[in-house]
Write a structure and sequence with these properties.
The chain is α+β, with helices and mostly antiparallel strands. Helices cover about 20% and strands about 25% of the residues. It has a 6-stranded mixed β-sheet. The model has no long low-confidence stretch (mean pLDDT about 95).
Amino acid sequence: MKALKIATFNINGLRARLPNLLQWLERERPDIACLQELKAADGQFPAADFEAIGYGTLHHGQPSWNGVAILARDAQPLESRRGLPGDDSDTQSRYLEAAVHGVLVGCLYLPNGNPQPGPKFDYKLAWFERLIQHAQALQASDHPVVLAGDYNVVPTDFDIYNPKSWLKDALLQPESRDAYQRLLAQGWTDAVRHLYPDEQVFTFWDYFRQHWPRNCGLRIDHLLLNPALAPYLKNAGVDAWVRNEEHASDHAPVWIELGTRKRR
C-alpha cells in the first residue's frame, strides 16, 4: 500500500465553480478526488483543464443534474462500473467505480429525497438498497475499497448543528439513517467519525440564514473504508477554507490520508 490522499467534493455545478475546483486541486493535491453534482453532460466535461494540472479523469454526467467524476493525480482511473446494478430503468448519473493507485474507488451521489414523503424519497430509499446490496461484495473484497461521496444522510443528531429545524428533511429521516447504519454494519469504517468520535465535524452549510458564518453545518459527505483498507487510515479532515471562497459550493471537500503500513 502506498501513501495516498483521497478526497470527496460535491462541487454543486462544475462549470460554475471550475476555478474553485482547480484552485483546491492545486493547493491540496489529493491523489484521488471524487466529485459529485457536476450538473454537466459528458461532452461539457473540462478534461483538458484537469490534465493541464496533472489529473487523469473519468466522468459520468448528465445535463443540468447529478453527475459524478473520479480524478487521479498522475494516473488514469480504470473504470470498473458505471451506475449501480439492480434497476436498468434508472438513468440518473449517480455512481462511478474505478481502480486507481491500487484502490477500488466508488464515487457516489446518493439521492436527496426531498420532499418527503413522496416519489423522490421512495427513489432515495430504493437507490440506497441497491447501494447496500452492491457494497456487500466490495466490503468483503481482499482488495482495498473506498466508497466516497455525498450520501445525503446525517447519520446522527451529533452530525448536525441543530436537528430541530431539519426534522422533516429527508436527510434526517429514520429510514435514511437506518439504511446508512445497515451499510456500516456490513463492516465499513466511517473514516471521519472513526478518527474523531467526539468531535462535531461538518461538511455542508446551506446558503440560507447565514449558516456558513455561524458554522451551522451538517455532515453528509462520507468516506467509507472496507476492512482491507481501514487499517491504513492515518488522518482525515475537511478543507473548510474552500467553503469560504467566492462562488463556493455549499459543500467543502472531505479527505483522508492513508499510510504505507497498517496501524498496529
